[in-house]
Amino acid sequence: MHKDRPLAATIGCASPNREVSQPVHPLISAKTMSNSSESAANTNQPSVPLLDVSRDNQPLREEMLAAVADVYDSGRFLHGPDVTELEREIAAYSHTEHAVGCASGSDALLLALMAMEIGAGDEVILPSFTFFATASAVWRLGAKIVFADIDPVSYNIDPAAIEAAVTPRTKAILPVHLFGQCADMPAICAIAQKHGLRVIEDAAQAIGAAYEGRAAGSWGDVGCISFYPTKNLGGCGDGGMLTTNDGEFAQQLRLYASHGMQPRYYHQVVGINSRLDTIQAAMLRVKLQHLDCWTEARQKNAARYGQLLLEAGLTDQLQLPASHPGSRHVWNQYSVRVPDGQRDALRTWLAEGQVGSEIYYPVPLHLQVCFESLGYSKGSLPESERAAEEILNLPIFPGLTEAEQQRVVARLSEFFTHRSASAA
Ligand SMILES: Cc1ncc(COP(=O)(O)O)c(C=O)c1O
After folding, report:
1. Is CATH 3.30.70.1560 what the domain over 64-288 is classified as, yes or no?
2. Residue 184: how many CB atoms within 10 A of its CB?
3. Tag placement on the chain: N or C end, fewer CB within 10 Å?
4. Given 3.30.70.1790, 3.30.230.10, 3.90.1150.10, 3.20.10.10, which CATH number is that of 290-423?
5. Residues 6+ apart with CB under 8 A from 279
6. Three-class SS state of 282
7. Per the omega criterion (within 30 degrees of 0), is the bond before 16 cis?
């Protein structure tokens, strides 16, 4: 399909056998796939997609289809051995004792809260600058969402804002490791400990990330992972997983994920049906073997943007993303800030030049219509609002080529040159 472009295999991703080795975490050692088709003008240049899932998946085609065929032949479409194996592998990868598969990252969040018996009368503190699922899980259970503002550099929830939001009704803190970078977990865990709160990590965008040598999903009581196709470990459909070091809690999660049923047809609690399909698990096991390689490619791309944007003299016009020293940023997104109200014009300019970009997220959750009754208004969370006005996400997927990155930067550069020429 993309014969003219290098495949993942050529950026150092070998194609190991399905049976081979368990991956080792290297620590201690759009929903639209592409928005380039929206572009208006034909610049006679090949387009640069925001994301090209097929390009990254293509070299694994045979292995993936073989994995699907195995499950197909086994007939064990649910609760097959690949699910158990993937749970074991993800637990090891995330440096936790247990992992429990479920149907999506959204369900992982819901199950974590359900298993903690969080509901009416309880408050949960979370960021407003995140994907909707972080908040909807809390809402759905009748608990009160308490939004805390973000740190303007990392875009992650600000521990000082969490501390200020704690009340006697607070039951849990729900930090999000946004764009592939861990929130300040030492500070968050210290607040949780001080006030006796549970911690649920939304690690949907951050599998493989770490903060000060400790993996995302291993800091709190539980970590929630998404296998949505655009995530760093993306499936071929929906899927999710929970990580925890608490064996009893893992059992509770399994109970809630299977209608609260134990034994069969005897229901201990009112749970939901949330399963990771065996076919998804089998394909994710193939992809997990390549995750570290893809993460390295993302890190390389991020470093290259830093260099190219500096060389182009754009670091005054754009605020580049920063990664916390000593942390492992896995770059699910590469987000620049475009100040002075120029973001939307820049995005249009990129689209006209066939360069994909996206705004994650244009409206912070405290200003969403569905959460109006919570009583927030414009100005309630200034940093979340400023981020929503200024952020722009550029292509960073593993198979992105150097030439494509150069084109992205050249197009950015033209925008500012053009602007200053017309202002003169
Ligand atoms: C921060 C965050 N939380 C939760 C989710 C929900 O994951 P899923 O799409 O697998 O339900 C996502 C994924 O879009 C996400 O980005």
Report:
1. no
2. 21
3. C
4. 3.90.1150.10
5. 67, 68, 71, 72, 77, 236
6. helix
7. no
Residue 260 burial class via C-beta count within 10 angstroms: exposed 0-12, middle 13-18, buried 19 and up: middle
- The pLDDT assigned to 97 comes to 98
Report the distance separating Cα 402 and Cα 419, nearest Å: 26
Kindly tell me if the per-residue pLDDT of 7 is higher than 90. Answer: no
Return the structure tokens found at 250.
């893992």
pLDDT tens by residue, 253-271:
999 999 999 999 999 999 9
pTM of structure: 0.91
For residues 40 and 296, give the distance between their C-alpha atoms in angstroms, rounded to a whole number: 33
CB 312 within 8 A of CB 408: no
Q: Is 83 helix (H, G, I), strand (E, B) or coil?
A: helix
What's the token pair of residue 201?
A: 């990590």
Cβ of 205 below 6 Å from ligand 1 = yes
Find the 361 Cα to ligand 1 centroid distance in Å.
13
Which residues, including other chains, have CB under 8 Å from residue 190's CB and lie 6 or more apart? none
Give yes or no for residue 104 CB within 6 A of ligand 1.
yes
* Identity of residue 239: G
274 C-beta closer than 6 A to ligand 1: no
Average pLDDT of span 327-331: 97
